[in-house]
Amino acid sequence: MYHTESLPKVLIVNDDASTLLALASMLEDPSETPRYEVFTVQSGEEALRKVLKHNFAVILLDVSMPTMDGFETAEAIHSHPRSATVPIIFVTAYYGDEFNRLKGYQKGAADYLFAPVIPKVVQAKVAVFVELNQKNIELERKTAELEAINGDLRIQRMQDLEGLNAALKSEVKERRIAERLATELATRDTLTGLFNRRSLLERLKLSIAQADRREEGLALMFLDLDKFKEINDTYGHEVGDELLKQVANHLNAAVRESDMVARLGGDEFVILLEGFPDTSDVVKIAKKIVNANIEPHVIGTHLVKTSATIGISFYPQDGTSPEELLKHADVAMYHAKQRERGSIQFFHEELNATERLRNQFEQEMQQALDNNELELFYQPKIDMATGAATGVEALLYWHHPREGLLKPSNFLPRVTQSVHAARIDEWVVSAACAQAQRWEKAMKPCALPISINIDITHLQPEFFSVISAALEEHGVAPSCINVEVSEVAVVDDLARAEAIFSQLKDGGIGITLDGFGAGYSSLAALKTLPIDAVKVDPCFMTPCARRHSYLPPLPLFPDDTSLVAALIAMARAFGLRVLVEGVTTQEQFEALKVLNCDEYQGALFSEPLSADDLLQRLQLSLPLSRNA
């Protein structure tokens, strides 16, 4: 048993019953022996009556109370001799209000606590003042004893006490510094100084409760930096870290002091906006953030280009819990990134259905890799002059367990946005090298170089090592593998393409610019990049949709040969071989022959076939080229 009369006393003053109970529960642990007795009251008047009856070690006082607010209560408490020196810790939700903080210290505040309150911080602060109170009581007792001792001893003892008091003050100061550091580590991101995920969720929970009471809404922005992994891989993590710091500064500058900016990790940031009357204000801030990241970031000697893609959810329309709001803002951001990098997307319920389909596709793609459901089919490239096969293009097909054999056009567009994209590229490289090894054993020397399609947006500087490892594993010469990369993707990032292409070229791997002429033909690409050939886009051969709807339809070949003739002439000027894809009729073949095209590919000779079927097709119809 213990006697509460002998325990130090702590007074909590707050007009909100739930907050009062929460603070009291933080200080009262039924599993431990009490270190102090906790009193609670709900008004300044009750607090004054309590301090006239008890000596308190510390008072936790709410700033915002009706009738008699915290400042008035503190002034009244300190005006009475009995309670003039009692430490008062103000509790408030307004972290950024410097005027109120100054007013509090003028009214005698010893410290401040800011909502959301962290239990360990509250316990540590109270423990410091309780301990200080006990030591002061002990000092008073010793002082009384010293007064009974003769003058000489009293002087010596006073000196000892002064040393003890100085040590105590030093200890309290050190503890406060340690508490501040511990609080920052628990609530802040160490790299950027922004709030972390834990702080965001706690603040969001409190903001939802306040929004309910005030009948207001709030907005949550989920921001992701585009191409951040590529920046890290290209320039190094030091540049990536500095970029995150600069973006954090831009975000803080774009919002009000009362708003919250947090970093969840990596290149993901979240902004909590409270008290906005309508969505137009939120859009203005989002556009301000997007525009701030349009210009390159100057980091050392580098100009680093990125963009910010933002998803936005609103309370209560898009969710009623912190986790739901955060998830929906993330979903909106993902769909914005799919549509256009550097764009803004509001959440709506249809996105959830799309997200479920995306998750299903990701799972099925994982199963396809695990269960060996993927297969490469091959379409031959035919020399226009000799009719011999000069190589083949590897095309990825999927033996789907429910939908049967899927052509590339049925699933590859979704693969480019998949988390498995890089792994699928590696699978294609390995499978193509394995097939090249089998063909080389059957038809020495290698007569059918295999071209593989690679999405340059997933290419990293180490991609060449992936191909090199696959070639070495299967014992295949680099000349047996060619790489085809879309001209559209190359033009978007010419410098990066040049660096990766140079590695491939130096390693003996041929490179073809795919989709040539489909709206992005670039003289700079033809002149700068170390490519061997161009493949004219099949949109010139068949009446298919243009990549850009604002472009007029193309005149069909061979009714009008001018565009194809111009593309062939352009490639010839740079010493490149020309292959036309999508040839389906004899008339197209004859017209291409007149234009001195080097090779063609298409259904006129063969649709894509499995490896075994392709060999039979070639053996029945024509000899293989020995000059490939």
Task: Provide an overview of this structure.
By secondary structure, the chain is α/β, with parallel strands linked by helices. Helix content is 48%, strand content 19%. It is built from 21 helices and 21 strands. Helix 2 (44-53) runs parallel beside helix 3 (70-79). The chain is elongated.
Tell me the overall shape: elongated
Structural class: alpha/beta
Sequence of strands across the biggest β-sheet: 13-14-16-17-18-19-20-21
Mean pLDDT, as a whole number?
A: 84
Give a concise summary:
The chain has 21 helices and 21 strands. It has an eight-stranded mixed barrel with strand order 13-14-16-17-18-19-20-21, surrounded by five helices. It has a five-stranded parallel β-sheet with strand order 2-1-3-4-5, sandwiched between helices. The protein has a five-stranded mixed β-sheet with strand order 7-8-6-11-12, sandwiched between helices.
Key descriptive features of the protein:
628 residues, five-stranded parallel β-sheet, alpha/beta, eight-stranded mixed beta barrel, 48% helix, disordered C terminus, 19% strand
Break the fold down into its secondary structure elements and pairings.
Layout: E1 9-13, H1 17-27, E2 37-41, H2 44-53, E3 58-62, H3 70-79, E4 88-92, H4 98-106, E5 109-114, H5 119-147, H6 151-187, H7 197-214, E6 218-225, H8 228-235, H9 237-254, E7 260-265, E8 268-274, H10 279-292, E9 297-299, E10 302-304, E11 308-315, H11 322-339, E12 344-346, H12 349-370, E13 374-383, E14 389-400, E15 404-406, H13 408-415, H14 421-442, E16 450-453, H15 463-474, E17 481-486, H16 487-492, H17 494-506, E18 510-516, H18 523-528, E19 533-536, H19 562-573, E20 577-581, H20 586-594, E21 599-601, H21 611-621
Parallel strand pairs: 1-2, 1-3, 3-4, 4-5, 11-12, 14-16, 16-17, 17-18, 18-19, 19-20, 20-21
Antiparallel strand pairs: 6-8, 6-11, 7-8, 9-10, 13-14, 13-21, 14-15
